[in-house]
Amino acid sequence: DTVGQETVNYRYTGSFGESKQFSAKITGRDIFDGIAFDSKLSSTFGVNMADTWGRNYNFNMIENTRENIETSFARVARLGAEEVIVHDFVMATFDGKGKADVDLSDMGYELVPDIFANDFRDEGMTQDDLDKLARVAHADGLKIGLRFNLALNNIGDYIGKDIAKEEAEDWARITSSKNKEWVMDFLDKWEDYMLKRAEMLNKAGFDMMVISPTWHPVTYQPYEAEANQRWTEIIQNVKQKFNGKIAVQVPLYSYLRNDGVEDWSKYDFYKDADTFYLEMQHLYAGNEGLVDPSVDKMKGYFSRFLDDVEAKGDNPSMLIGFKSFKDSFSNYSPYHPEEYGRPEVAAMVPDWEHQADIFEAFFQAAEGRKNIARIVVEGYWWDDVMEPDTKIRQAISITCRSKNAEGVIMKWGQS
Fold it and tell me: How do beta strands 44-49 and 143-151 pair?
């Protein structure tokens, strides 16, 4: 992964050990050339690893994220990151089925660490996993945090089906209105799970835990006020157990415009956390159809967006991630790189220059701002494998690893 002003050469080891190399031309922007430049980026810079854990994450049945902790964290540190975030996996098991299942009509479930059989890829982290992750991160000079992916369904059932359709149907159920008893019961169970995980994270030496569920971020309407009170209590109770920082994640556009399924004017619990994250992957409307937008044009968009964020006066942290297919800035896709058999995904044209331009535009827009606590790049993959060595279309995915954007991010991270 040597870098220069004209060409970036990224080298990785393929699935069977052979050495591969990609070269990509760089035009219209500087990349990291080995000398840090003097930027005015004051936010803490971090990297969020791809949200997968355990074996089979590239659908080859033999791979395991545990084998790539050292190499991945060393590379994250070279990007100039100060912290790294990883994902733990939780599932709701109904009626002792051993798999998650979307059935929110009753409270007869428990929250347990995810298992490989639920979706054929992700697993809950063990104490040994947490110990090693913290040890390696700290040895590389990184602080380490943890996010929790919650599965209220059996993701493995998506295999062989229309994933986008199945996901949309599950999402509609998960974000539907709920009765008060269910809301209070879920929050009691989630608090209990967080308190147990806090003890494990303390033992491992983690620096932060993000206690909001992601993947399936449960909504609580029409009982937002009651949920707000419970979340305030949960934050305080976990703070008493966990030695590090407590963070939560807040829906971006609900926070800015209160346009989600919940009434976010009734929420303020996030102000009791040490920080809260806003995740930016789906952009504001109004950019549809833009063809090959310039860095300056995208910078203008991001500047207006960050003005709105800063105007709230809360000093949030930002999670950012942008896909690497042609004109992805202005063309939202609901499909995942794992859906390699879907015609829409197969037809996507990789454009690593465009992804690099998006990141450059964002960092330029963020430069000089004092009210963005952190900027964390999401989706950093656990190895360098690229198609055709894996069926997943990593060439169009959110990861910046082994793509042009990695040089741009390193430039800003090292500044």
Answer: unpaired
Question: Per-residue pLDDT tens for 183-194?
Answer: 999 999 999 999
Provide DSSP, 250-292.
Answer: E-HHHHHH--SSS-GGG--GGGGSSEEEEEESSPPTT-TT--S
Burial 347-377 (b: 16+ CB within 10 A, else e): ebebbbbbbbbbbbbbbbbbeebeebbbbbb
Could you tell me if 110 and 189 are in contact, meaning their C-beta atoms sit under 8 angstroms apart?
yes
* Distance (Å, whole) CA 237 – CA 318: 25
Beta strands 245-250; 275-280: pairing state: parallel
| C-beta separation of 354 from 404 below 8 A | no
Residue 402 or residue 37, greater confidence:
402
How do residues 254-290 score in pLDDT, each as one tens digit?
999 998 899 999 999 999 999 999 999 866 556 666 7
Q: How far from each other are the two terminal CA atoms of the chain, in whole angstroms?
A: 18
How many residues make up the chain in this entry?
415
φ, ψ dihedrals at 40, nearest 5°: -110, 35
Burial code (b: 16+ CB inside 10 Å, e: under 16) for 120-134 equals ebbbbbeeebbbbbb
Summarize the confidence of residues 126-139 as an average pLDDT: 99
Task: Average the pLDDT over 58-64 and give the result.
Answer: 74
